[in-house]
């Protein structure tokens, strides 16, 4: 059991009924001054002169001059003599008692002892004749990261050869950092972009107000009001522009009326979780937004209730393909990712069907002309003088042979010429 706290030999509960005002009224002015020096109140509403214990009774010599004060402190520090040493310093001589570390415990010493493992003559010979670079490669393959530095590990995995001069005791040198130039400031004029959006300019499809400071709420109102009637703007980027819940509600109303936006990015603003839910709900009214990003807002954690509501709204959206939000719960992440993947697959199928139907609607080329053999016009008509056969035979029409069948019946002679194969002997009266 814990001992209760005591004050002057009495428990703290004994002072609950003590009247503090009555005790303070019995104190004199000197006693109150002494008590004020002992008490250090932690009250931000009191000036610093009344919150500290130091009370300067000297009269002020003038206004504060920081430069002269620092010069006086440095001069006083240089003029103040050092404290005399009890034992003067002598190079190489230890003054006082030298610290000796205690011996390690027995368990640690046993763990540090080498462990002998019988690997067999073949492995013993291979490891005994292996070079240091080969052993480092083997350690990297086996995953012994603590036995080598980072350069050796990556060189072994990529088969680049070990760095020269690095062994088991090698130290990785820091690589020189790449200096990237600073991004130029965003020189977009908000007033001009609002006019272009309001005029429904066909060539203006990307609006970028990222990192523009001090944009008034009136400009946001004009922009979102113009978005309701715009039919050509496709990308809206409002990153780090100071959007709040009021302007986010205006944006949600604009998204419900707009029919051309495909990408909406409102990251790094001051939108509350309820405002994010309003924006996601507004995406249900439009069928054109494919990408929505709203991470890094005022509240880093949305909460379970808000994430489940966002998940339910996303599952009802058939056109959203990408969502930029930090969801803490795995159930919400899994459901949102599965639904977005289904939307992406459905979009791919619709694009394939659209391409197939477009290819069917395109006009086809003119069919090639049918060629007629010139021998067709040199046919000799049957002679009128030809006598009719006396025997009763059936009239057998010869089958028409096209060019393909003729080409199939061609054969090659010894001298390389093509000749027609002999016609088949077909007897019109097999039973005669």
Describe it.
This protein is mainly alpha-helical. It is extended and about 105 Å long. The relative contact order is 0.03. The protein has helices spanning 20-25, 29-38, 48-51, 66-79, 106-112, 121-129, 132-142, 150-157, 190-198, 217-227, 245-257, 273-282, 304-315, 330-361, 403-409; strands at 6-7, 10-11, 206-208, 235-237, 263-265, 291-293, 322-324, 410-412, 418-420.
Gist of the model:
One of its GO terms (molecular function) is tropomyosin binding. This protein is mostly helical and 432 residues long.
Topology readout:
Elements: E1 6-7, E2 10-11, H1 20-25, H2 29-38, H3 48-51, H4 66-79, H5 106-112, H6 121-129, H7 132-142, H8 150-157, H9 190-198, E3 206-208, H10 217-227, E4 235-237, H11 245-257, E5 263-265, H12 273-282, E6 291-293, H13 304-315, E7 322-324, H14 330-361, H15 403-409, E8 410-412, E9 418-420
Parallel strand pairs: 3-4, 4-5, 5-6, 6-7
Antiparallel strand pairs: 1-2, 8-9
GO molecular function, one term: tropomyosin binding
Keywords: Cytoplasm, Cytoskeleton
Pfam family, one: Tropomodulin
């Amino acid at each position: 059991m814990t001992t209760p706290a005591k004050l002057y030999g009495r428990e703290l509960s004994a002072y609950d009924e003590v009247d503090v005002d009555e005790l303070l009224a019995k104190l004199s002015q000197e006693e109150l001054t002494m008590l004020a020096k002992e008490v250090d109140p932690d009250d931000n509403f009191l000036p610093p002169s009344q919150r500290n214990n130091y009370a300067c009774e000297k009269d002020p010599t003038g206004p504060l001059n920081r430069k002269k004060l620092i010069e006086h402190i440095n001069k006083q520090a240089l003029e103040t003599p050092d404290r005399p040493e009890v034992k003067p310093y002598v190079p190489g001589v230890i003054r006082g008692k030298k610290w000796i570390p205690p011996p390690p415990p027995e368990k640690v010493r046993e763990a540090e002892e080498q462990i002998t493992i019988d690997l067999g003559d073949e492995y013993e010979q291979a490891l005994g004749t292996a070079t240091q670079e080969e052993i480092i490669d083997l350690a990297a393959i086996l995953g012994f990261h603590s036995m080598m530095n980072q350069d050796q590990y990556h060189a072994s995995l990529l088969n680049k050869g070990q760095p020269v001069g690095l062994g088991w005791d090698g130290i990785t040198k820091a690589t020189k950092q790449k200096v990237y130039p600073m991004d130029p400031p965003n020189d977009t004029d908000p007033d001009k972009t609002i006019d272009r959006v309001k005029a429904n300019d066909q060539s203006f499809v990307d609006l970028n107000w990222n990192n523009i400071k001090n944009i008034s709420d009136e400009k946001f109102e004009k922009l979102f009001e113009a978005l309701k009637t715009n039919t050509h703007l496709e990308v809206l980027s409002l990153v780090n522009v100071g959007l709040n819940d009021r302007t986010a509600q205006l944006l949600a109303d604009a998204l419900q009326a707009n029919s051309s936006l495909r990408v909406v990015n409102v990251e790094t603003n001051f939108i509350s979780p309820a405002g994010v839910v309003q924006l996601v709900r507004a995406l249900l009214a439009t069928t054109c937004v494919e990408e929505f990003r709203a991470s890094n807002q005022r509240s880093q954690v949305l909460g379970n209730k808000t994430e489940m509501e966002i998940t339910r709204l996303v599952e009802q959206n058939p056109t959203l393909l990408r969502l930029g939000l930090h969801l803490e719960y795995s159930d919400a992440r899994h459901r949102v990712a599965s639904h977005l993947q289904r939307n992406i697959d459905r979009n791919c199928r619709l694009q394939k069907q659209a391409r197939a139907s477009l290819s069917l609607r395109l006009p086809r080329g003119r069919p090639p002309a049918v060629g007629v053999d010139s021998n067709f016009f040199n046919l000799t008509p049957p002679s009128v003088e030809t006598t009719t056969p006396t025997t009763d035979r059936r009239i057998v029409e010869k089958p028409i042979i096209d060019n393909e069948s003729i080409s199939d019946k061609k054969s090659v002679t010894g001298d390389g010429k093509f000749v027609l194969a002999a016609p088949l002997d077909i007897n019109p009266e097999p039973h005669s």
